[in-house]
Hints:
By secondary structure, the chain is of the alpha+beta class. It is 39% helix and 27% strand. Helix 3 runs parallel beside helix 4 (121-127).
Amino acid sequence: MSPSIRFTETSDPREWDALVAAHPGATGFHDWAWLELQSAIFGWRFHPLIVSHDGTAVGVFPVLLRPGRIPRPADPPFPFVGPLVLAPLLVDTLRAFRSWQLRHGVPIVRFDLGPAVTPDDSDLERAGVEWTTDRTYVVDLSHGSPEQLVAGMNRNARRSLRVAGAHAVEVRPAAPGETTAFLPRVLSESYEVRGVPSPYPAEIGERIERWAAGRDDVHIGAAVVDGVTSGVMVALGRHPVVSVWAGGTLREHRAANPSTSLYHDILRWSLERGHPAADLVGRVDDGIARFKAGLGATERTYVTVTSSPLPRAVRAAAVALWEVTQRRR
Length: 329
């Protein structure tokens, strides 16, 4: 392990959240309450590692594992969960983490470096990790104007807003019970249309609704078409860049275009709160990428890292075996 980097596991949410908030790359997915909630839902083991440099706490490294005789990496259905340290310390942190894995018997860990964490390939090579890149879409809200928000959309998105208005689409805060009822339904439809089952359990809506109750940094909007609720969407707003996590509208109402209005509502909420940007979280496929770009979002890349202390040949076999088990789930 690097002589200057150390990891200690904390049990103090305030210490964790203070370090998260101090990093410019912080997202709602790094917050203690979010990680605890998702770990409880999926049965993961959350290791909240504090990163120290020369004895001073400088960041966090959330590690999510599936329990077992040999711990396996969790595969969160949300991105960006990875170490938050300043750029000059990232390579040493990634190197030191392999020693942590070796000592704790964790052969493979996968994690993301969010869009604000931008190492180049030479940094990652020096860190001794393997990596791939993915994409997300971020809307710049620094103009501070609702009119500019609409003007920044493409012609199709603006037309969708007009069509929604003609169909009496209304977006308002989700009423009690709506997140419980509609979030699992829209998630199931969203995944099944791509030929895969939703990774979320049936109680995801109820768990999220209970968790978000009373929080002013979580926005759950509901789209209503001619008086009928069509779907919900959840956004996390504790940090400067809002994370638009999940949700959508039921396909039976798609002719009214309520999804565009639902996203527009979250962007207006973000704008009114003074957030400089909103991350629409993920690319998924070409169609969704075009939809998000049409809302005025710009494509941003982020890095997914595979870390292992195993020799390279053994590591490749272990990663291949892990990927096979993931496909079978």
